[in-house]
Amino acid sequence: MQFTVALVGQPNVGKSVIMNLLTGAGAVVSNYPGTTVEITQGYMEGPSGRITVIDTPGTYSLHSDTEEQRVAQRVLLEAGVDLIVNVADARNLSRNLYLTLQLLDLDIPMVLALNQMDMAREAGMIIDTTALEEKLQIPVTPMIASKGEGLEELEKLIWKAAGSPETLPARATSPMRFSPEIERVIGMLQGQIEQIIPEEEGKHRLHPSRALAIHLMEHDALDEDLFSIYPELAHLVEDLQEKVASKRFQCAGCFRGCWFCPAADDSHPVLPTCLERTRQAQAITTAVVRRCRLEGPVSTRVRLERLLDNPSTGIPILALVAYLAVRLTLEILEFAEEFVPVILEPVVGFIAGLAGSFRQGSLAEIIITAIPEGVLLPFEVVMPTMLSIYLIMALLEDSGLMPRIAVMMDRIMSFLKIPGQSIIPFLLGFGCRAPGVLATRTLPNRESRIVVSTLLAIPIPCAATLGIITGVARAFGADLRVIYGAIAVVFLLLARLVARCLQADSELVMEIPPVRLPSARAVAGKAWMRMESFFKQVLPVLMITGIGVRVLLNTGILSVLSRLDPISTGLFGITGQSLVSVAVTVVQRYAAPMVLLNLPLGAREATIAASMISLSLPCIPVSYLIAREFGWKTLAAIYGLALGITLSTGFVLNLILPAM
Ligand SMILES: Nc1nc2c(ncn2[C@@H]2O[C@H](COP(=O)(O)OP(=O)(O)OP(=O)(O)O)[C@@H](O)[C@H]2O)c(=O)[nH]1
Ligand SMILES: [Mg+2]
């Protein structure tokens, strides 16, 4: 059976929770808008076959044009969707219905999953879902996805639609009708569209002429995609614009505000169709929602939200959260340092014992003596650091604190001329910088995306890097304050510089989600899921680098690099061999300090080299994403900047750092 279901809805409504319930796909769920930035695909298996389910990024409307929202919109245009499951947040019904009404215009059968019914109830809303079904003329299932309630009903609806698609009404029956004036214009455009695109040629979902007409009037984000499918539409628009401009076509009263009109504001048009849609969404909400007076004391959630959202209490609370986060990391590190060697003792002892059975100086002996260090360090320092960062991130993501931190940081961010929303990509970057770069898709424009991605690529250290830098500091007594100080200074300078060059927008537009008590299972599950990267990527890379470098050293190959010593020591105060570790960052930044760990270093040299590594070239995965999202030229510019920064950092530190 070939049947595709797309979960479409506004941000943070619970699409990914429903995706996971339906398919077990493991889509990331977090309590902030913009969690999903790419499409996740999964499958529902049943006796009558297999259904493909697509989870999409949240989109407020079909006009929204941040990159991640375009991703969602393109699914409807290109992916051959057979059924839309429109997930709506019952608590914000009116705003959610705006998108619902737009989706109803597409020629795709649809059901409405009215989610977060518990939150709506808590806010004193009673929703008459039968009345809503009648108004929208589509099936409506009330749900509390986080508890799995309503899932069975939704599954039944999906299987029924897959079995007999004709049972679901398609767009042609959309209840949305505009005022007579607008309908007249739509009718006129519809006539022209039908002439240039005959019905039988319809090859995609937006084909029905009415939907196309409305799209053309609203000039939304899908236009370019539409024009590439139907070049004739672009000519139609040009023709109309020309007629309006030369006054051959009367614009006042009907077209005013639509984008054919020279008076229209292209960037954020308030169009009559949009206004009417908003009003209709409000009218439907008023008709189906009854508000009852809440009895009893104010809930703990509401009290907590009030405290957090008031700056005089919110800032100290968030500062306390930050303090607790640092403490948690230190506690976990201390705990690991005490217990990991004890647990790994038998393994390490066994490997060390093996070395004795080989001839001294043989390759096997060299490799085996390198293994214990390669095993211990990742487990002792890198793993606990990564685990604590992932736990903290999961707690911030699921509780609703992350966007509140973004708001708190907005002042500082706007001083740096970067948007407050970028806090979320930055925080994600402390976990791994690759998802951080992807999360920039939620930013308002390409310029700010590039600024934030540059900062992610160069000064932001990922969890694994933080872990191994801590390891270097402990091994050689390097000064962590200097290393983090250098990172902070470069972050501030670079932010000012890039933001100024690109004139990025600094306005913060972000929806603040409700505070939720994170479930221990979800937090542990998410942290564990991310920890997989430690075992699958970090551990092997660290072990291979560690062992590889030791082998290169013991065989004397690396000593060739000591020819670089006069230059590297003169300029940066480090040996040629340490300088090589900086170049290794391009493979994986966290692999680079592993090179250092195998060299005989003093505290000063280790501090300088670790600082240079922390501010060096982005690793291959991050580079790939930057090239994919912004092109090779941007990547080349970032490489150039990174190279300049890492070398100047070494140079300046060598000048100012006293002997240690
Ligand atoms: N109280 C309550 N919380 C819910 C419900 N459904 C989802 N959530 C929570 O809502 C938050 C958002 O869920 P997601 O599934 O990530 O939302 P999304 O629609 O995929 O969000 P984006 O990917 O950002 O568009 C999470 O914290 C969920 O635990 C519900 O029915 N009731
Ligand atoms: Mg999601």
Question: Helix fraction?
Answer: 55-70%
Q: Residue ranges: pLDDT <50 for 5 or more in a row?
A: 251-257, 262-269
Distance between the termini: 70 Å
DSSP summary: helix tally: 27
Integer count of domains? 3
Average pLDDT score: 85
| Rg measurement, Å | 29 Å
The strand line-up of the biggest sheet is 2-3-1-4-5-7
Oligomer: single chain
Structure class: alpha/beta
Residue share in β-strands = 5-15%
Summary tags:
alpha/beta, binds guanosine-5'-triphosphate, 3 domains, binds magnesium ion, 8 strands, six-stranded mixed β-sheet, two-stranded antiparallel sheet, 660 residues, 27 helices
What would you note in describing this structure?
- This protein has helices spanning 15-23, 67-78, 93-104, 117-122, 129-136, 151-163, 180-196, 209-218, 223-229, 231-245, 272-288, 300-309, 311-355, 363-399, 401-415, 423-431, 433-439, 446-457, 463-476, 480-502, 520-554, 565-572, 576-584, 592-597, 603-614, 620-630, 632-656, and strands spanning 4-9, 40-46, 49-55, 83-89, 110-115, 125-127, 140-142, 289-291.
- It has 660 residues and is an alpha/beta fold.
- α3 links the parallel β4 and β5.
- The protein has a six-stranded mixed sheet, sandwiched between helices.
- 44% of the residues are buried.
- The protein folds into three domains: 3-167, Rossmann fold (3-Layer(aba) Sandwich), CATH 3.40.50.300; 180-287; 312-656, no CATH class.
- The protein is built from 27 helices and eight strands.
- The termini are far apart.
- Guanosine-5'-triphosphate binds next to α1 and α4.
